[in-house]
Design brief:
This protein is mainly alpha-helical and about 180 residues long. It has nine helices and two strands, in the order H-E-E-H-H-H-H-H-H-H-H.
Length: about 180
């Protein structure tokens, strides 16, 4: 009997292992190489299904399945607040959220109370701080490459990201910033 899991979530985890598109590779060489390894590839799942898989993969320390869950979530169009909520709940790398942080920083609409609750107080304060910096930076100006580099620095510093996590931020800034 499995405690703290639903039959639906467990079935979703089994779907990963018994997907008909999973191939088992066996290489010849040393004794260790004779152990077959699975190649997880073609899946079509929803955000909810992948979060179910991710939850069980983390609980039972299935690292490859966890990595698969993250890869599959990265392919899905997830709204910025929802993505931050999910990734923070699972303790996934903040670097994967750079684009979501940038979108919220540049978004014209105010965050709703519900969105603020999902983000949590610390992240909400970071988003608010980044939005203030970005608006001061860009008030009444046409975005330039120099502005985009400053925006990159704001996102990096406020959200405590590594430089390599920010590759798409400059392009994203110039594209979205044209609206201000």
């Amino acid at each position: 009997m499995l405690k703290d899991t639903t039959s639906e979530a467990f079935a979703r985890l089994l779907w990963v292992f018994y997907n008909r598109c999973v191939s088992i590779q066996n290489s010849v060489g040393s004794l260790i190489d004779l152990i077959p390894s699975r190649k997880y590839s073609i899946y079509n799942g929803t955000i909810d299904q992948w979060t179910q898989v991710l939850a069980l993969a983390q609980r039972w320390e299935f690292k490859e399945v966890e990595a698969l869950g993250v890869r599959e979530l990265e392919k899905l169009p997830i709204p910025a607040v929802e993505k931050i909520y999910i990734y923070q709940a699972f303790g996934l790398g903040r670097g994967l959220l750079a684009e979501s942080f940038a979108k919220l920083t540049l978004r014209d609409e105010f965050l709703t109370n519900e969105e603020g609750e999902k983000l949590g107080l610390d992240t909400l304060m970071q988003v608010t701080r980044a939005r203030e910096f970005a608006r001061r930076l860009n008030s009444g100006m046409v975005p330039t490459e120099a502005h985009s580099q400053e925006f990159r620095s704001i996102v990096r510093d406020v959200f405590e990201l590594e430089e390599e996590d920010l590759d798409l931020i400059v392009t994203h800034f110039l594209t979205l910033r044209g609206r201000y």
